[in-house]
Design a protein that fits this description.
Elements (H helix, E strand, L loop, with lengths): L3 H19 L1 H10 L10 H14 L35 H18 L6 H11 L2 H9 L3 H15 L3 H18 L14 H21 L4 H11 L11 H6 L10 H27 L9 H19 L14 H4 L4 H22 L1 H6 L1 H40 L14
Helix pairs in contact: 1-2, 1-4, 1-5, 4-7, 7-8, 7-13, 8-9, 12-17, 13-17, 15-17
Length: 415
């Protein structure tokens, strides 16, 4: 039954590909109705990566200008992308985009989804949501992080040798996108010696990257701050501050801004602690050999890393997909969080549908405007609750993995 999800996803993606090939106007209209803003061409975000690599090989400083990109975007990601040994030509954009979509379908087929109609329906709702379709249509490189996370999650449920490969994948993801470094906290499950090796390799990799591009970090940091800008559909721990200073941007320079961030971090930590206590009361079991638990842990740490480190656009919510098998396994709180995540994935469409009514004005426009405001408020509450739950669900196994006390396997025996 779990193959229903990848098969439906593959069918939908293939139908959109056919529409783009033969009826591009219908393709654009349907995606607009789906609240998926399309770019100048499909897979426009990965096109930017390919363009940056191509122009970098031609000697251009792509952190300043990028004439290979269709719309002239500078390279805003890790400099490591620029030296990857990959076939990088803007003429290969379509092939790379289709390849990422196919890889996503394969990754979905590997998820250990419970074989129940409810689980399949919820997973389909998540996969076909505007946020996930946006990630596929743009082929954003967060899709690469997702694929690495799914593979790492499966390997983390295996033996020590394969787990080392998983940490290597997570280190690679962190060097490419930074925030996946949060998932390396799972190394705390290992023995002290293995943990120190993983930590040393991680640190050495970061130092090597820093030295290799020492003269470019100032420009990269400036571009990174720009790309982490606030938006209506973004999710971030800092969003409450951003709403408060929309009309007073100068407040960003005040000392109170730092205090506000610290206060929000304290609130987030309190929420995580509350979820930890609740999950312990509900008897959440740590199963070292179960991919669903490892996928939940990896996904939870990735989302928490995004939430705390900056503003994330809706397509980054694709990173929650690996968490759904564990969330749909029957645990009470987990089922509620799964429903919240589906709502958040569909929120762009719910908000977008009211836009014409707001533009029309009058009483209906006022009511629609209130509806949109309530949706945005619910979005903020939803992301705080869901992200803190996912972080707690990841942290709880980490505590059990710590080598100071042997971790039980699914049969209750220590490893």
């Amino acid at each position: 039954m779990r193959l229903i999800v990848p098969l439906v996803a593959a069918t939908v993606f293939a139908l959109f590909a056919a529409l783009y090939a033969w009826w591009p106007q219908t393709y654009a209209v349907l995606l607009e109705a789906w609240a998926v803003p399309i770019g100048e061409i499909p897979f426009i975000d990965f096109h930017a990566v390919l363009a940056a690599i191509q122009c970098h090989r031609l000697g251009e400083d792509v952190l300043v200008t990028n004439r290979c990109d269709l719309i002239g975007r500078p390279h805003v990601y890790s400099p490591l992308w620029l030296v990857l040994p990959m076939a990088a030509d803007v003429q290969h954009t379509m092939a790379w985009g289709v390849g990422l979509a196919v890889a996503l379908v394969i990754a979905l087929a590997t998820l250990p989804l419970p074989a129940t109609p409810r689980a399949v329906a919820v997973m389909l709702a998540a996969v076909l949501s505007p946020s996930v379709v946006l990630a596929v249509e743009r082929a954003n490189n967060d899709m690469v992080v997702l694929l690495l996370a799914v593979l790492a999650g499966h390997l983390l449920a295996r033996g020590p040798g394969l787990r080392l490969i998983a940490y290597g994948l997570l280190i690679g993801a962190a060097l490419l996108k930074y925030y996946p470094a949060a998932a390396l906290a799972l190394a705390l499950r290992e023995s002290r010696a293995r943990f120190l090796v993983i930590a040393a390799v991680s640190l050495a990799s970061a130092v090597a990257l820093g030295i290799a591009f020492a003269d470019r970090w100032a420009e990269s940091a400036r571009l990174l701050v720009w790309v982490l800008r606030f938006g209506l559909y973004t999710f971030s721990l800092r969003n409450p501050i951003e709403y408060a200073v929309l009309d007073h941007p100068q407040l960003h320079e005040q000392p109170l801004h730092g205090l506000a961030v610290a206060a929000l971090l304290a609130v987030f930590a309190a929420l995580v602690w509350g979820w930890l206590l609740r999950l312990r009361r509900e008897g959440l079991m740590v199963r070292l050999d179960q991919p669903a638990d490892m996928l939940l842990a990896v996904s939870g740490l990735l989302i928490a890393g995004c939430f705390v480190s900056g503003s994330s656009l809706p397509y980054r919510a694709v990173l929650v997909l690996p968490a759904f098998p564990a969330l749909l396994s029957g645990r009470r709180s987990a089922g509620v969080v799964a429903a919240i995540l589906v709502f958040l994935l569909w929120l762009p469409l719910l908000h977008h549908a009211a836009a014409p009514l707001v533009a029309g004005g009058g009483l209906i426009g006022t009511v629609a405007g209130v509806w949109q405001a309530l949706l945005i408020t619910a979005k903020e509450i939803g992301w705080w609750l869901a992200t803190s739950f996912l972080a707690a669900a990841a942290i709880l196994p980490i505590f059990a993995f710590c080598p100071t006390s042997p971790s039980p396997n699914r049969h209750g025996r220590s490893r």
